[in-house]
Each structure stands twice: as C-alpha cells, then as structure tokens.
C-alpha cells in the first residue's frame, strides 16, 4: 500500500469513527465548507433555470464514496419500464472526457471516455443514456433527441442547476452519515439536515438484516419512514464472457475499485470465500498488473470494475453480478410522486 493509500485509509477510518476520529480537529474547515455549499445551493435555486418537460428523479447522496446508487438506478429503470414509462438516464460519468456536447453511451463505449458506471448501465439496460459534466445539457439532449418521458439522474444531488421533481437520497446502511461532519472533517458534502429535505431516503443494507437494523438506523438518523434495499449477489460470471462455472476453490483474490471495497470483500466472505482483498480507489483506472497475481487463484471483482478490465482479463477473472431488491411500497410511493408532480408540458410527450 502506497503512502497516499495509507493516508486515504486513515482519513476514511476517522470519518467513520464513532468518536469523530482525528479529522474532527478540522471542524472549522467543515463549517466553512458547509457555509459555502449552502451559498452555492441558494444561488442556483434563486436563478433562472431550464425547466425539463418530463419528470426528473435525482438519485444521489450527501457523502463521498459509494452507496449503491448505480445498481439502484438500474432497478428503478426496470420498474418504471414495467409500468409503461420510457426512462432515460443522465450521468456525470466520473473521469469522463466529455466536451461541450453530451455523449451517448452504448455497451461498446470506452469507459475511459464516458465513465465506468455509464458503460455498466448501458450493458444492463436498453435505454438512452447521456453523459456530460453539465447534467442540464445531458437532460436537454435526451428531451430533444429521444422519446423518453422520464429522466433519472445517476448522482447529481448537489447539481442544483438541474431542476428536479423528486430527490432520492441513498445511504450505506453500514456507514450511514459517519461522524456527521462535512468535508474535510467528515465524509459529508452537505450538512446532515439535507437528509430531511429530500423526498425519499433509501438505505442500502443486507436483506436478511433489514428488520433487525431498521429501528437502529432510524434512531441513528433521527428520521422515520425510511425505505431499504439490498444488493443480492449471484454466482460469479467470467469477465471474458466464457460460459463456465467458477472453480470450486475457497480462497480467491477480491478486487474492488469502489467507494467501500470492504463491503464487497465482506459480500464475498458471506458466500463462503476466503478473500485476499485488493482495495483500489473509487473509479480506479485498472492496468493488467492490478489484477494479475503470482498464483492460479480466481480473481473476483465488481461488475463496475469488470467493464474496465475486459481487454486484458483472462479465464482466471470473474465479476460478481448483483440483483437489486427494492420493496413494492417504495416503488409505489415513487410512482405516486411522479404522477403528482408531472410538469405541465408533460402531456405533449405521452
């Protein structure tokens, strides 16, 4: 582990330490960050902004790192399609080399150009998907060039230039709000109070422990009426696309370039694997040396990482698909909000 990786791990450990960790001494900087974030938000909310002709749902978070937003977006898209909607997706595309014009993402797009998560979504879903650093431009392109009648923004809760009808906040059920401090003393992009301003809070937690954790989570967050979802793993799939079963070997290498690698490693352990963990930063640009080790043990990575490793993976490399389980009551609540908040111009797109 490099010096920078050790420092990053120390910061993360402090953010999620119950006592606040050593970063709590940066609280004055957090107060300044929070003040500037609120000023920026109010500046956008008070400005003249483009009004989308279709409902916009933003699925985001207020903490840095992964919370399961992208798998949740995929699940919501499928549910809305089942109910007759024609959804489209917009995304920043972390690390994407987007210019002025939005880029349409296809299953064959280069993740180095459009981002890893958009390519993963494009391979899973048959919907229009646009990436641009300016989500408004991406949404305008979807409305002008496709027949979508619903837009889902993968991330972008703080992209206030984009008007939205519904805000969905996603939390990691293990980490929640950490030490509840804003950057740099804590992991939050906005103060904890922002949680009470969104339309729905969805907590990513293990399906088996939802009922046991619900009271604890609601007490910790100080908010009732939360919804929960889980990411249920399936059997590992070959990164190279070869149709075969993973070797029946207990010890494996786990590779994860996501916001919370340890969560992925724990998932592998819950499946019975003895995991040698190899954590990488979120959205890491993988090279062959990152996933090749001096043995013949299987290497299991996340689906998001697999889209970046396809060109140099071999028959030792696998990824772990997940099924996102969302309650019917959550979907019905979202449907009611969509129906109640459709823009006046929506009638022209039905």
Account of the protein in words:
With about 350 residues, the protein is α/β, with parallel strands linked by helices. It has two domains: about 230 residues, 3-Layer(aba) Sandwich (Rossmann fold); about 90 residues. Helices cover about 30% and strands about 20% of the residues. It is built from ten helices and 14 strands. The strands form two sheets. The chain has a nine-stranded mixed β-sheet with strand order 3-4-2-5-1-6-7-8-14, with helices on both faces. A five-stranded mixed β-sheet has the order 9-13-12-10-11. Strand 12, helix 9 and strand 13 form a beta-alpha-beta unit. The longest helix is centred in the N-terminal third of the chain and has 19 residues. The radius of gyration is 20 Å and the shape is globular. The model has no long low-confidence stretch (mean pLDDT about 90).
Give the SSE map:
Layout: H1 3-15, H2 27-45, E1 56-60, H3 69-82, E2 87-91, E3 103-104, H4 111-114, H5 116-124, E4 129-131, H6 135-145, E5 150-154, E6 166-172, E7 200-204, H7 210-221, E8 227-233, E9 237-238, E10 251-256, H8 261-270, E11 274-279, E12 299-302, H9 303-309, E13 317-320, E14 322-326, H10 328-340
Parallel strand pairs: 1-5, 1-6, 2-4, 2-5, 6-7, 7-8, 10-11, 10-12, 12-13
Antiparallel strand pairs: 3-4, 8-14, 9-13
Helix pairs in contact: 5-9
């Amino acid at each position: 582990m490099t010096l920078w990786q050790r420092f990053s791990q120390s910061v993360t450990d402090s953010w999620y330490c119950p006592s606040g960790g050593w970063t709590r001494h940066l609280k004055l900087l957090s107060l300044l960050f929070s003040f500037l974030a609120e000023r920026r938000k109010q500046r956008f909310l008070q400005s003249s902004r483009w009004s989308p002709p279709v409902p916009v749902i933003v699925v985001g978070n207020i903490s840095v790192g992964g919370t399961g937003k992208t798998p949740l977006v995929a699940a919501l898209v499928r549910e809305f399609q089942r109910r007759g909607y024609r959804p489209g997706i917009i995304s920043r595309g972390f690390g994407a080399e987007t210019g002025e014009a939005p880029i349409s993402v296809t299953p064959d797009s280069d993740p180095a150009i459009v981002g890893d998560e958009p390519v993963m979504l494009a391979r899973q879903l048959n919907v229009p998907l646009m990436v641009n650093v300016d989500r408004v431009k991406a949404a305008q392109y979807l409305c002008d060039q496709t027949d979508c009648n619903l837009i889902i923004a993968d991330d972008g809760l703080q992209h206030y230039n984009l008007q939205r009808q519904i805000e969905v906040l996603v939390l990691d059920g293990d980490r929640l709000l950490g030490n509840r401090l804003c950057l740099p003393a804590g992991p939050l992009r906005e103060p904890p109070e922002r949680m009470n301003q969104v339309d729905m809070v969805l907590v990513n937690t293990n399906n088996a422990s939802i009922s046991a954790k619900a009271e604890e989570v609601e007490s910790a967050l100080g908010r009732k009426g939360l919804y929960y979802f889980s990411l249920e793993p399936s059997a590992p799939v070959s990164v190279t696309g070869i149709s075969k079963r993973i070797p029946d070997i207990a010890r494996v290498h786990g590779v994860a370039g996501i916001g919370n690698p340890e969560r992925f490693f724990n998932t592998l352990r819950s499946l019975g694997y003895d995991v040698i963990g190899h954590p990488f930063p979120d959205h890491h640009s993988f090279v062959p040396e990152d996933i090749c080790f001096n043995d013949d043990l299987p290497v299991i990575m996340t689906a998001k990482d697999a889209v970046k490793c396809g060109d140099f993976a071999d028959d030792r490399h696998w990824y772990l698909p997940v099924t996102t389980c969302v309650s019917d009551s959550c979907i019905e609540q979202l449907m009611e909000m969509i129906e109640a908040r459709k823009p006046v111009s929506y009638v022209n797109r039905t």
